[in-house]
Design a protein that fits this description.
The chain is an alpha/beta fold. The protein has two domains: about 180 residues, Response regulator (Rossmann fold, 3-Layer(aba) Sandwich), CATH 3.40.50; about 150 residues, Response regulator (Rossmann fold). The protein has twelve helices and twelve strands. It has a six-stranded parallel β-sheet, with helices on both faces. Helix 6 packs across helix 7 and helix 8 crosses helix 9. The chain starts with 7 loop residues before the first helix and ends with a helix. Bound molecules: beta-D-glucopyranose. The site of beta-D-glucopyranose has 11 residues, from helix 2.
Length: about 350
Amino acid sequence: MKKKTERIYRTIGVFTTAAIVFSGCGTGQSRKEQDGKNLKIGISVYDQYDTFVSELVSNFQDYAKTREKDWGISITMDVENANKSQMIQNDQMDDFIKDGMDVVCINLVDRTDASTIIEKAQASDVPVIFFNRELVQEDLERWDKLYYVGADAFESGELQGDILVEKCKKDFNRIDKNGDGVLQYIMLEGEAGHNDSMVRTMSVINEITGSGYLVEKLSDEIANWNRDQAANKMKQFLERFGNRIEVVLANNDDMALGAVDALEAAGYDPDSQDWPMVLGIDGTTVGLNAVNDGKMLGTVLNDAAGQADGMLELARSITAGTKLPEEYELQDGKYIRMPYRIVTQENLGEIQMLLMKK
Ligand code: BGC
């Protein structure tokens, strides 16, 4: 029996499912009996309230509608929320298998605990595409029908660093509020043990110092990718360090926006010299708006649309044996990694045009 919360997408319609065909679901029809005219995909996300992940799944659903026409098939999708519980997600895997899904897309709750899902998949011969929360390589190598779609976390940290470095080259005195030649910064980290979080935190600093700038970490805190948690942490940082904060480096846009919320609540004005440089990663709709408004210096586009499309193309390719489009290179027969891109006020228009076309 599925718990109410797990079915939340369909009940409250966080993601539109209107044009997605659900008719094949739960009828007991096995994958072996299908005629290639219906592709059944089960998706489980670690937390439906995660802004980036929900944008990705929403893109996936939009692409599925288009591809139904392009490919002349119906695509049945069942999107489930694991509600931050690996146990719930493991149970959802059982349901996907029972419901005869052709392929399952998993946004792992615990990236170090993929074993149960892998064993269930292998025992029932159901391929799995993991996405966004990268599992350890040894796990992905345990079976040839396991894949990962995401991006290269190092690149995102480096590009975030590059945004700040470019600004420093043009306007160091504006950033260095106390004029000591050192960048005093705050780090807002995503999640303990999350690959993107660990790697971004390290690579952004390496990029800045490697470019010749001196930094001083005032403090860092984990805010679990979450805007409210980040706002709380930033409130405390402001109480402790006040105007000494020159740079806020956040592992994602939601946390950068939490910092913006706290700055505004404390009476800081984005147009004044006191406003620190705030940098995020993702390029979510709200993140891009904050870049446009000058509240964030920049962000790094984590290509949700490309990852969603790549995942759908891969699902089709695995199940129907079709060739992957050229833009999706399957590295080592297992990985699709979409490139990141810098976004600042200078190229915002271009990026927004690009996203509209996708
Ligand atoms: C994104 C975050 C998101 C996290 C969830 C990261 O790649 O940048 O915004 O919260 O994935 O796993």
